[in-house]
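In this section we walk through a basic example: taking a raw amino acid sequence and producing a predicted 3D structure, encoded as discrete structure tokens. The instruction is simple. Fold the sequence below.
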Amino acid sequence: MAEAYRPLLNNAPVDIAVGHRSKRGMMFEADVRNAEMRHRLFNCFEVINSLVTMRLRGVKAPAARQELEWFRDVLRTMGALEQGLAQSDDQSLVQHITHAANAWLRVAEADHIDVVVDCQPVHVPPRATRTLSLILHELISNCVKHAFPDGDGGRITIALRPDGTNAELLVSDDGRGFKRGDGAAAARHGSMGLSLIARMARGLGGTFDIDGGPRGGTVARVTLPRDGH
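The resulting token sequence is shown next.
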């Protein structure tokens, strides 16, 4: 009886090894396909961004220009995010935040605006990374455009930290800011950008609030459940 099963036993390690190699090959192929798809998405964002930029040259109405510029900025943000994901699928949210901060710093330094990152490692659901990147873009954009109208410059601080079972993303500035207590109304009835942020936060099962800071300026806070909680 033992002799009858010996060929099967002798071949078992080989079959397992082949199975492992096959699994590794499939995972590698999947990674290559994902990277290629993200690269193509990045190229699509670049093409659409170019079309929007061309359209902007012929648009004179301020309101229309503002909407097109907002759309162009969102495309740039999504393109940069997809490019980063194509280079490394394991990038953490902190790495994405750092990348975004460096990009905005290059834009804002001409106006003497500093962008500072103060983040702790926090895991969020993978699907939340793209949405949080868009939220971050909107919040920093608001700071750059509205917080320092006198041209004196200032500081924008991006913080990410755990808060119990939640993750908390904060974007604050030391600029003009809201009066304490006025932020809730602005989030409900203010710009399209703030309304969009509130909707995106709710879509992640989280919340969004914005108000004047304790020492002036503005503090925007997005809270959402952490990965695994």
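Looking at the output, two observations stand out. Residues 5-9 have pLDDT under 50 and may be disordered. The CA atoms of residues 118 and 159 lie 5 Å apart. In the next section we compare this with other chains.
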